[in-house]
Design brief:
Order of helices and strands: HHHHHH
Number of helices: 6
Distance between the termini: 44 Å
Largest sheet: none
Shape: globular
Structural class: mainly alpha
Helix content: over 70%
Number of domains: 2
Strand content: under 5%
Radius of gyration: 20 Å
Length: 178
């Protein structure tokens, strides 16, 4: 074995770099999609309540929430959440994943609320009792509705392959061959 050869099983640095770039692009795409919907919901809520005083804070919170939920999605995909029904119809697989990832986000929100309340001096049981599950359930319903088209596109991309999907979605003219 020469000094320049790489032992079997060792990942190539270029492969690792490409994987990191791919994961970052996925994170940015998911976060932008979520930011679009979360900002739309924020706008709707502000218009409905006629409360425009904290607009910068509300939009900032929506953007931060999109970044956090985007990371939660990537964590869920990393642990292979929702892969059980990938052999089913795309619609069923998409709804199944939207539901599971919605539950995952719900769980993260519960943990976040308990930690926030614990940091403000409440006991763990008291912090858990103070969590407003109705608000979290309402938020989770919106997230589920946001996730259905997201996972439909992600499932379509999985089935078609990255290159064919991008050609179909982002290029006009001749359709890709099967």
């Amino acid at each position: 074995m020469s000094a320049n050869s790489i032992p079997m099983g060792t990942p190539k640095p270029a492969g690792l770099k490409q994987k990191a770039i791919h994961e970052f692009r996925q994170y940015v795409a998911i976060s932008l999609y979520l930011a679009f919907f979360f900002c739309a919901v924020t706008t709707y809520r502000m218009v409905l309540l006629k409360d425009f005083q904290d607009a910068y804070f509300n939009y900032g919170a929506a953007l931060i929430n999109a970044l956090i939920v985007g990371k939660v999605i990537l964590i869920g995909e990393y642990v292979r959440l929702g892969r059980k029904h990938e052999d089913k119809a795309l619609l069923l697989s998409s709804i199944y994943k939207a539901f599971l990832f919605g539950l995952l986000v719900f769980g993260f929100h519960v943990v976040e609320e308990v930690i926030k309340r614990s940091l403000h001096g409440e006991t763990l049981s008291g912090a858990f009792a103070e969590v407003h599950f109705d608000e979290l359930a309402d938020r989770s319903l919106v997230i589920f509705c946001t996730f259905v088209p997201l996972f439909a596109f992600r499932e379509l991309r999985r089935v078609l392959g990255e290159e064919r999907f991008q050609q179909l979605i982002f290029h006009s003219g001749e359709r890709p061959q099967a």
